[in-house]
Amino acid sequence: MSSPIISAENISKRYFLGRSRDKSDGIRHVLESAVRSPFRWLREHSLRTAKSQEEFWALDDVSFEIKQGQVIGIVGRNGAGKSTLLKILSRITKPTSGRVRLKGRVASLLEVGTGFHPELTGRENIFLNGAILGMSKAEIVHKFDEIVAFSEVEKHLDVPVKRYSSGMYVRLAFAVAAHLEPEILIVDEVLAVGDVAFQRKCLGKMEDVAKGQGRTVLFVSHNMGMVTRLCSHSMLLDKGRLTAMDSTETVISRYLSNGGELAGERVWSDPESRPGTRKLRLLSVRATHSDGKATGIVDIRKPLYVEIHYEVLQELQYGRVGLRVSTSDGTDVFSSADISNEDWRSRRRAIGRYVSRCEIPGNLLNQGIYMVTVAADTPYVETFFVEQSVIRFEVEQTGGPGSHDVDKWIGVVCPALNWDVEVCTAASPVGGSDNGR
Amino acid sequence: MSNTLQSRGTLTPELVIDASSVDRQYWRDLWTYRELFYFLAWRDLLVRYKQTVVGIAWSFIRPFLTMAVLTVVFGKLGNMPSAGVAYPLLVFCGMLPWQFFSTALSESGNSLVNNTNLISKIYFPRLVIPASSVLTSMVDFMISVVFLAILMTWYASIPPAQIVLLPVFIFFALATSLGAGVWVAALTVRYRDFRIIIPFLVQFGLYISPVGFVSTIVPEKWRLLYFLNPIAGVIDGFRWCILGGEHELYLPGLAVSLITATIITLGGIWYFRATENEFADII
Predict the structure, then answer these.
(1) d(Cα B45, Cα B43) in Å, to the nearest integer?
(2) Nearest CA to CA, how far is B17 from chain A (Å)?
């Protein structure tokens, strides 16, 4: 099978911003302009011009080829065009230009439980959802028991799904989708739901589908661990462009190295706008790995450095510069200041530029988006600045070789802790020396 | 899961997706998705009377009450001519196609918007959605036909020979409903104004169309114009087929109605196909 099963040639997709709400599109306006100047209206509408509207290219000249049996990950920041690409491949929307050739049945799973009706029972929804996803009735009947077994909701099959717990709902929905047998399967970030045990089961099923049955799978996820585990090759989208298509490892490291939209750095270049007082002013804040380059994407395993650059304008004693890290939902994770360093606890800071660098160890913060607030003051005396959420970065699970921790652990932090396991009641009571420490 | 029992046609033809709105596959796809079409109609029927006390009986109660009101207003208070049949029977024959048309129009008009989640997440020929709404209304229609049969037995009314032509008029009603329905469905995606316009139109239509009265009360010189409303033609046809008697078929009027209906239906499908590609983007 050397010829590609999917080949995309220069596909682009344009959206008009605010199109549906634009006043030039309201029915009153349309009628009004059609009545007032019918010829101009006809001319304009036949040409479909949209000159006054702001356009936005969700996909910009993307070309690639995928061979049968390949499992391709698609990574990129939010708004990079991943979902648009999937929508075009699954024929939900048409490209503005370019073309795609597909050789095989496509099934897309852009959402778990599309078309589920809350009033219908689990049994009825299996049929409805199956039909929506493109299965024939005979096919659904044939796989019905398998689907039910996979979903683990046997007991509640005749209860309306609106009475299901969200976990049951997701399990049932995924069970239907998992039994699709298309040549090309397109999966958006649907595994982000459900409990950990079920996620593992789904992942296993997907591996089965991809590796065991030789189907072509396109898989979008923000979970780099899942992408690494499932996909041999990946493509990286950035602002609608395909910036890389290579082995997953290469693509992910490239993705993680340029943080994209997350603000890993904030610089106040205009001296007038710099936060602070006559004594001390903030210059910039950034998050870096050990390479010193600002990044918004942080590898969970590596230490992260937050650098606060500032300028001391009048000699300062007992001053301190600190930061507070909080999660995207506003929970404060910790706060710290540079006087933790004994050398600087009461040391004078002469006039000049400084950088206070805080090392946040690897394997501390959990996956997720964090914000950093920075502040400088002389405790109990004077505050120079407090700048809320100046940078935002995302800690990502990379999995890495040998890692099985593809799921997010519960909790704000995710430290790598040492565990020790002892056998307390050994079967043979011969020696006590091998488990004593 | 080794499930290789299902051997499907492995020779899937190459599918080309590009910007052009012409899709050679479309009608074949529509056929492939015929099961979805039944499933959606089945869903709408199942859901309709869930958690209601009277359930399916609503399908009888609604037309019955409307019939009673129209009979009192037009027959008793308005004292309108009934062309030699019991007034309730006359009204019910008019209501049969009218109810079908109006529910089909409102249901299919809203159908795309109500299924936004499907449209933005799954591909299938979008025509399936309004068409399945029309199918759902067809079920109500069938229930009403049963009701009519009971009513006719009650009034000991014997249908004339031309009843065999009734399927033709049912098809006429079906095509008109589908045509108008897809127009409104496609327009509602872009202009939600139609969600407000349609209930309004349906309310008016009941009085404008010859539901509660016979079309012969319309003055001769306006008659032809009156039949620009395709439902007027349908209703006349129904009465002629079912009641016979003094109900003559006004052929020029019927022709006008047929022409309007054809224009509406073909135009509706054309407009739907032309705008369908952007439904997912603007809905």
Answers:
(1) 5
(2) 5
Model pLDDT for residues A218-247, shown as the tens digit of each residue? 988 877 777 877 888 999 998 889 988 988
Same domain, A191 and A307: no
CATH number of the domain to which A120 belongs: 3.40.50.300
Instruction: Look at strands A184-187 and A106-109 and give their pairing.
Output: parallel
Specify whether A245 is located in the same domain as A275: no
Do the chains contact at B15 and A131, CB–CB below 8 Å?
no
Residues of A in contact with B113 (CB under 8 A): none
Give the mutation candidate from A61, A63, A89, A92 for the B interface (greatest B CB count, under 10 A). Answer: A92
Query: B140-159 burial, b for 16+ CB within 10 Å, e for fewer?
Result: bbebbeebbeebbeeeebee
Task: Give the position of tokens 């405790």.
Answer: A379
Tokens read off for B30: 């529509």
DSSP B184-209: HHHHHHH-THHHHHHHHHHHHHHHHT
Residue that the structure tokens 């006559």 belong to: A278
Chain B residues within an 8 Å CB radius of A90 = 122-123
Q: Reduce the DSSP state of residue B97 to 3 states and report it.
A: helix
For chain A, give the longest Cα–Cα distance: 102
- A414 part of a folded domain: no
More confident residue, B226 or A209: B226
The Cα A117–Cα A113 span in angstroms is 9
Closest CA to B155 of B57, B245, B70: B245
What 3-state class would DSSP assign to A222?
coil
Using one digit for the tens of pLDDT, what is the confidence trace for A319-374?
A: 899 999 988 766 789 999 998 888 888 888 999 999 999 999 988 998 888 888 89
Q: Can you tell me the mean pLDDT for A303-308?
A: 93
A274 and A177 co-located in one domain: no
Query: What's chain A's average pLDDT?
Result: 81
Which DSSP state fits B139? H
A218 and A116 within one domain: yes
Q: Does B22 touch chain A (CB under 8 A)?
A: no
Structure letter (DSSP) for residue A416: -
Verify that A151 and A292 share a domain, yes or no: no
Sign, CA torsion B84/B85/B87/B93:
negative
Residue A318 vs residue A401, higher pLDDT:
A318
User: Which of B10, B18, B271 should one mutate to test binding to chain A, selecting the residue with the greatest count of A CBs within 10 A?
Assistant: B18
Do the Cβ atoms of A111 and B121 come within 8 Å?
A: yes
Which of B19, B33, B35 is opposite residue A95, by nearest beta carbon? B19
Residues 182-241 of chain B with CB under 8 A from chain A are: 190-191, 193
Task: Work out the minimum CA distance from B80 to partner chain A, whole angstroms.
Answer: 39
Which residues in chain A touch residue B115, judged by CB atoms under 8 angstroms apart?
115
